Amino acid sequence: MADEHKDVWVYIEHKDGVTTPMSYELLGAGKMLADTLGSKVCAFVIGEKTEEIAKNAGNYGAATVYAIDGASFKTFRPDAFAKAGASLVSKFKPDIVLYRATTQGQDLSAAMAAQLEVGLGSDAIDLQIDAGSKTMKLTRAAFGGNFLATYMNTRSKPQMATVRPKVFPMPQHDTAKNAEIVKESFSMAEDDARTKVLQFSQSEVAVNLIEADIIVSGGRGVGGSEGFSVVKALADTLGGAMGASRAAVDSGWVPYEHQVGQTGKTVKPKIYIACGISGAIQHLAGMRTSDCIVAINKDAEAPIFKIASFGIVGDYKQIVPKLVEQFKQKLNK
Ligand SMILES: Cc1cc2nc3c(=O)[nH]c(=O)nc-3n(C[C@H](O)[C@H](O)[C@H](O)COP(=O)(O)OP(=O)(O)OC[C@H]3O[C@@H](n4cnc5c(N)ncnc54)[C@H](O)[C@@H]3O)c2cc1C
After folding, report:
1. Which own/partner contact pairs does 15-18 have at CB distance under 8 Å and 24+ positions apart?
2. Distance 219 CA to ligand 1 centre (A)
3. Residue 259: CB within 6 Å of ligand 1?
């Protein structure tokens, strides 16, 4: 059957059946590739109850959603999900399969690539279709971010890639758009799964920068780890997450999980407040598409002011505590 299929599939990730709008973001990139190939963007979901997720994937633009339901799939486990995912891919033969480059997406894509014996490109920041060969071209940072490299997998199908969150535009949610839902069964004896999830515990340094609507970041200009308690106070007051420049991370003031930029996370919050960050190109690469950028820097010539929506020239030590005080009053905290 379907060897000639050119469909582009997107994995819809969830945590125990709960998705966020970001779970559907790659349907936008998938549609762009599918349009170029003259094919369809489809989604696949594996879970205990997938109806709502499948319906939503249709609203976000999937033409067809392939779903596997079962009690074994309540909580994400790479081996169980990879077996189920590989069975779908083997049967329906998509041309391309995309996953978000999140912990879950990276786990699942690697396990599925091994099951299917195909290649996997990771952490794409751009995807195109090569005009001649109709093969996907994947661009990613290489050599510590000093170069961008473009790869094509010309050997195996489907072509699979993980894609950095927030680099492609979010597709529109439209309840008028509905997908055809294809329910497939895949049964797995509990003994066949090599892992059992006993519990999840939140890591102390876990920071959800990617999903945050408000991010307050600190750079070398905050002077040390004490400076980050000032930055964190503003992030906490605004209900946001705390980010950092690489200079601050390399100095050991905050863990790498907080780093924003070319070799850190790509973020797109509604508000990004940069404190003591000069605005190097590699930092801007991770945050320049934020909706509103506020820069606080004592040097009026700092490059960050060129892309800032609002700029405050001055010492963060004086400005940030005042902002905390004012926001606490306004927000009745
Ligand atoms: C391959 C490669 C990858 C990289 N990846 C990343 C990345 O992912 N993310 C990243 O951030 N960087 C990255 N970098 C590093 C980047 O080039 C810059 O060195 C780094 O972003 C600078 O961090 P910064 O702005 O905190 O420090 P600086 O450039 O030193 O700027 C500090 C700023 O603080 C201001 N300041 C000082 N004191 C105060 C004060 N009291 N109040 C207010 N302002 C003050 C100063 O005026 C200055 O503008 C990368 C570099 C390379 C080569």
Report:
1. 15/76, 15/104, 16/74, 16/75, 17/47, 17/48, 17/49, 17/52, 17/53, 17/74
2. 6
3. yes
